[in-house]
């Protein structure tokens, strides 16, 4: 139950990718849940087997093996099961918590999590660099309330470079397949922007986004932008930059969102800036029936939590 060093980033050619273990595991068992994989990962052949139909993965520490008996033995002894997720609890609200994990302090966990996530991510690559990332785990605190002995379940995460020259607030994001289509990705996106606020940096996700990533982010951005516009009480019109500053979003992301919403006016101000009408935003909201409730409640952050400056 081990793994080689690995982390997830965009395939930018910054380092050579490992060639061993580029296998297509067809099914994965995460704890007690069996589901299909989508893409190959870089599990080593000597530990995961050659072209295995099924790989067993611990739902607490993400160590893995191809045989059931050692997997069950590991589950009984896994220290993460009793100690809880690694890292620091930074947020908790409505049965969901966020843990911040330093990839340098928890390298094996980061490596195993990255290998598992690659089974469901097409446009990310695995390479030896977990130490330069922080990982933010989304934990369901009550996965089955009818079974009081159930342990909290990690159901997704996002990673973030400790030093991003582009001010990216997110490098990789994934909700595990059994928990998708529940709107949980918005919690992770919301946390990434709240962290940007705490760092006093306007940023956004690492680009280019995948097709699914763009769809997910546009939905998140639309609600965020609409909420900001409608809460600017003293203004009937506003510029893209004003909205971006209030949302802590990049102006280019705000522009893409407004174009998707089709709420920009045809006229421009004398300085060339685009004007957005609140009335058109209200019309859009009535048509789409979007829930503007923020996915993250800032009161859910642990008291005294401070973002460390790694620069």
Q: Can you characterise this structure?
A:
The protein is about 30% helix and about 25% strand. It is an alpha+beta fold. Strand 6 and strand 7 form a beta hairpin. It contains nine helices and 16 strands. Helix 6 crosses helix 7 and helix 6 crosses helix 8. It is elongated and about 70 Å long.
Structural class comes to alpha+beta
Strand order of the largest sheet: 6-7-9-10-12
Query: In terms of per-residue confidence, which ranges show pLDDT below 50 for 5 or more consecutive residues?
Result: 2-22
Number of strands: 16
| Quaternary structure annotation | single chain
Q: Secondary-structure element order, as H and E?
A: EEEHEEHHEEHEEEEEHEHEHHEEH
Question: How many angstroms does the end-to-end distance come to?
Answer: 35 Å
Mean pLDDT: 84
User: Which term fits the overall shape?
Assistant: elongated
Please summarize the sheet with the most strands.
5 strands, antiparallel
Binned, the helix content reads 25-40%
Question: In what range is the share of β-strand residues?
Answer: 15-25%
């Amino acid at each position: 139950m081990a793994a080689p060093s690995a982390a997830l980033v965009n395939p930018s050619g910054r380092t050579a990718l490992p060639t061993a273990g580029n296998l297509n595991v067809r099914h994965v068992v995460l704890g007690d849940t069996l589901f299909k994989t989508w893409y190959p990962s870089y599990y080593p052949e000597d530990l995961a087997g050659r072209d295995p139909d099924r790989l067993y993965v611990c739902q607490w520490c993400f160590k893995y093996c191809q045989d059931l008996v050692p997997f069950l033995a590991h589950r009984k002894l896994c220290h993460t099961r009793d100690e809880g997720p690694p890292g620091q609890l930074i947020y908790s609200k409505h049965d969901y918590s966020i843990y911040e994990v330093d990839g340098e302090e928890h390298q094996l966990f980061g490596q195993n999590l990255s290998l598992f996530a690659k089974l469901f991510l097409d446009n990310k690559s695995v390479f030896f660099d977990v130490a330069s990332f922080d990982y933010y785990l989304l934990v369901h605190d009550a996965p089955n309330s009818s079974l009081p002995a159930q342990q909290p379940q990690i159901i997704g995460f996002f990673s973030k470079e400790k030093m991003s020259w582009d001010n990216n607030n997110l490098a990789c994001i994934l909700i595990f397949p059994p928990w998708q289509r529940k709107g949980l990705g918005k919690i992770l996106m919301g946390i990434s922007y709240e962290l940007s606020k705490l760092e006093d940096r306007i940023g956004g996700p690492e680009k280019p986004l995948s097709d699914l990533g763009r769809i997910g982010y546009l939905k998140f951005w639309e609600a965020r932008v609409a909420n900001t516009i409608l809460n600017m009480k003293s203004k009937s019109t506003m510029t893209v930059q004003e909205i971006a500053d209030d949302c802590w979003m990049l102006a280019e992301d705000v522009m893409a969102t407004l174009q998707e919403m089709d709420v920009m006016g045809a006229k421009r101000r004398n300085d060339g800036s685009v004007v957005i009408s609140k009335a058109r935003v209200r019309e859009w909201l009535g048509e789409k029936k979007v829930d503007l409730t923020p996915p993250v409640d800032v009161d859910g952050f642990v008291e005294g939590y401070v973002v460390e400056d790694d620069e």
